[in-house]
Each structure stands twice: as C-alpha cells, then as structure tokens.
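User: My instructor asked us to take a sequence, write out its structure as tokens, and then describe one feature of it. I'm not sure where to start. Here is the sequence I was given:
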Amino acid sequence: MITIELRTFTENEYHQFFRDYQSDPLMDPSPFRYNREQVSRSYAYNHGGYRENYVHFGIFLGEKPVGSFQLKRMDQVRKCCEFGIILQNDKVKNMGIGTAAIREGMKIAAQRYGMRTITGDTTKRNRRMIHVFEKLGFILIETVPEAFDLPDGRKEDRLVYSRQITEESFS
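Assistant: Let's start with the prediction itself. The structure tokens for your sequence are:
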C-alpha cells in the first residue's frame, strides 16, 4: 500500500503542484495553462479562511505535491460533508494515491471535524473514480441525468456516492 500525507500546502508547494498539473479530460477537457498570478489568487482563496466549512489539503508523496483534496460543505449539525480530489497528472494515477488520500481524508473528517458521512461525485464515464468509490464502500445514492455539459455539446450524468465514516473506513 502506498504511503501519502495530507497536509496544508505552502504557497510554494501549491505552485509546484500546479506547474505540473494536467486537467483530466474526463472531468475537464480544456488543457490547463499555469498562470502564476491566478494560482496565487487561488491559493489565497483556498487557504485564507475565505471559504466557510471548507478545508484544503495537498496530497504529498514524500515531499512532492501530487494532488489536492478538499473537505467541503461540512455541516456540523448533520455531521456530513463532501469531498473533492484531483491528482496532478497521469504519472501519479493508477498507483493507489487517490484511494489512500480518500481514506486519509475520511479519517481527518471524522477525527478533526466530527463528520460521520462523506459524499463525493463524478461523471458517469469516469470509470476510474467509480471503481475507487466501490472499492472504498461508497454507495451510489443519486444519479442526476445530464448534469454536466461537455464541450462537444453532449450532456453527462452526475453520479453521487456516499459513505458512513467508521473506523473501518481508514483501513
């Protein structure tokens, strides 16, 4: 099993991550172009306390930032949240990094923030993410037909998965 660490990005690490970032064509077919000023603004927004009920972590393999993981819309009353994850590029995919990051993210959500349910979503054609959801015990709770507009004019279904967070979630 691969060992990763979820921790807050420094601004330099955030730039390092985005200098080598390539958008996943299944989620965003537009090529990403690194822009120092835009990345600095994004860092300030994501790490400056401007987003209520939201925390943003880097996914680190050793000292190298290889992904981004967010806990969002944390509801302290209902004890539930959503997560978002992106990996830097195809070089770090299919290695178990995403799976390990989601496991660690569930642990942080439960232990630091008291969350008991976590939700994530993907497009119907993202077979890799669907596999990760199923492997980690998430259950498909909703299909939103034609929720995503694709650049070629087609529409794609949004699949929403959820899981109760238990001690078994982390292993």
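For the description part of your assignment, you could build on this observation: The first strand starts at residue 5 and ends at 7. Try explaining in your own words what that tells you about the chain.
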